[in-house]
Amino acid sequence: MEGLAAGLEIFSDPTTLGLILLGTVAGVFVGALPGLTSGMAIALLLPFTIFLEPIPAIALLSALYCAGTFGGSITAILINAPGAPPAAATAFDGYPMAVKGEAGRALGIAAVSSACGGIFSLVILILAAPALAHLAYQFGPPEYFALTVFGLSMLASISGKSALKNLLGGAAGVFIATIGVDLTTGVERYTFGRPELYEGIHFIPFLIGLFAMSELLIQSTRTHQILERIKMTAVLLPTREDFRKVWKTILRSSVIGTFVGVLPAEGGTVAAMIGYNEAKRWSKHGSKFGTGEIEGVAGPEAANNAATGGAMVPTLALGIPGSATAAVILGGLQAQGLQPGPYLFEQQPTLLYAIFYSMLLANIVFLGIGLGGAKLFSRISLVPRTFLWPTVFALCVVGAYGVEQSMLGVYVMLIAGVIGFALRRYGFSPAPIIMGLVLGKLVENSLAQSMIIFDQNWLLFFERPIVVLLFSLSLIGIFAAPVAGLLRKTAKEPASANSIEE
Amino acid sequence: MLLVSAAGFILTFGFDEVPAILSQNVPPTFFPRVVLTTTALLSILLLIQGVRRKEPKKAPVPPIVFATAGVIAVAVLLLETLGVFTVIFLACVVLPLLWGERRIRDVLLFAALTPIAIYLLFVHFLQLRFPPGILDFIF
Predict the structure, then answer these.
(1) CA A254 to chain centre
(2) Is B57 inside a domain boundary?
(3) Domain boundaries, chain A
(4) What kind and span of H or E run contains A41?
(5) Chain A (6-65) residues lying within 8 Å, Cβ to Cβ, of chain B
(6) Is the CB of residue A405 less than 8 Å away from at least one CB of chain B?
């Protein structure tokens, strides 16, 4: 609890405060721009945060994460083009509301729901993260290995993509993490005699390439697209009647979003989809969803912002990222020389609470921005893509070079960009690769240490209850969806056979 | 991915050998081989899934993507020779024109302002150093 008070120091540091405000405004800005996500923006900013102190650096990234998730709702509502994937569900009812002339009301409810969801999840973060970290004291290398396997197995359940492709992407990321000198033996692996590769592929240029460069190539085909904007006079605060209608939805979605966020690898997009579906299921006007129902905006918005705080719980407590963007923030912590996990709570309590306060402040600031500046932010969709994406290219080059002041970073960024484009074309998402890359070293080290502890007898893994539990959850994570699909298919077949007989 | 896995696996045979006592019976080839076996298995499953579930044919990659990738690749290759700021200026001229932007004055203004803004923020404020290239008489 000492840290709780010590964390308040960020409010007396003008640099940190300024960076939180900057991160929030930048987050809403990039979140609102279709194609630019908060994950990409954090990836682009990461090289430069290395030159900051840890607290301002992580505060900036955390604020950007929260605000970026909200920013996507502005363009989802006004131009039916979600600025970021977590806002996709918001467009289902937000855009029809805007078409009906209720854009201000939709944006108002989106801002309030997002802030409520975000703040709710932060309270859970502050309560759950230390408890989870305390539990992690009981973790040895076998438990950490099982936990990383569980984290990677959750990639199978990310919705909208093929489970197999996600798992393969995660495994490819883990493989890339093996490049470099093996820490146990000092043997070079896949370095081809290049000294620049001894320390492995640097995370940041790879990340910039995979997220930003691949998106630039995709966007090059869309430079002529003109998005139709809905006119909006002002953002309206939700009325008492609106609140009465949506408070249960906000609360339910906040719980859903936080829970989904805590699960490794699951992020705001999954949370928003579930939040939307549950809002529809519990609503008295479920059949009207998709035509401009206010609950259809509140549900996904509360859920996707609640997922941001939720995702930070395993990221900080265990070093297992709760989402792709949290994986990038985890990279930021590592770049600062900080290793998330129980010892972070013991040694750096101020940092934890500083992150909490920065995210809290970001939620309050974007509520103000969302209510007061949405009209202005909606205009950023008018920035011509022919000027926006060359700027992103310039930032990619500067960011990839800046990490190690070496051309290798720029080459890695370029290659990762082309690989990312090819993978995305064939339905692979960059997020699992990033997760694999971030977790790769932890997976290898914990497995190697476990094998040494067990004297090569891997059956001893199954004598540890936490390991057995995590392995079981991993199996459920991987096989639940295919088994359910198979059961549905077998249930349908006799039914269709019967109808043919009739 | 199957080919990459196979190539990666073959390359593990070229790793330096270390005595078992040093590697504590976990040789440096152990983990890459485990991961590559996993990627190979997942690739085979994906292949089987692809054969069983025929996906609609994808439209070919538009030529603009190749042109953009080409411009970017050339820009990266010229980075050390011409310098970061010159390359950013050129990329900010060529990319918008390639993508159909015809407001030449706006393009030139944008191309001039972007490297200046980046210089002020990253070199002047954050004290980073970039390859000066042909502009080394300034930096």
Answers:
(1) 16
(2) no
(3) 2-487
(4) helix A38-49
(5) 48, 51
(6) yes
